[in-house]
Specification:
Elements (H helix, E strand, L loop, with lengths): L1 H21 L4 H8 L5 H13 L6 H14 L4 H10 L9 H16 L7 H13 L4 H8 L4
Helix pairs in contact: 1-3, 2-3, 4-5, 6-8, 7-8
């Protein structure tokens, strides 16, 4: 029976290594994916082995890595921190200047010259930027060109 447990643990570990080979995952993501196919004990053992061998990166590093990827996709800090929370990672600190510049870039791409925005377009732009995870203060600054 003991060899059966170790073989299940080995299979879970091999699956974990394959997942980490493709991209970095948080511990929560690995647990969620592996528990679909393996027992909790096998998953726990596999994650412990990977942590002992330092295959799983620190949560702070993963948080920065995933956060930067979402910043490049021009997502707001609320969207980014919500995505990190779902992955079981710590939130990133807010950089107001970066958020404002991303907000302005998105407005420029979608609506062109911001001075010609009518009230209905401003409302539409506000909803658009809110859906991308920006806070209302930053959106108002970007829409009304407040510095």
């Amino acid at each position: 029976m003991d060899s059966s447990k170790s073989s299940k643990s080995d299979k879970a570990y091999n699956s974990l290594v394959r997942m980490l080979y493709r991209r970095d995952h948080s511990v929560l993501e690995l647990k969620n994916k592996l528990t679909q196919w393996y027992t909790d004990e096998a998953v726990r053992d596999a994650i412990q082995r990977a942590q002992d061998r330092e295959y799983i990166k620190e949560p702070e590093f993963l948080s920065k890595q995933f956060g930067e990827a979402l910043h490049r996709k021009e997502k707001g800090i609320y969207y980014i921190n919500n995505a990190l929370k779902k992955k079981g990672l710590p939130p990133l600190p807010t950089d107001p200047d970066r958020e404002l510049s991303k907000c302005r870039e998105l407005l420029q791409k979608k609506y062109g010259d911001q001075e010609n925005l009518t009230t209905p377009l401003r409302v539409k732009a506000f909803r658009y930027l809110t859906s991308r995870g920006f806070d209302s203060e930053t959106i108002n600054k970007a829409i009304h060109n407040k510095f």
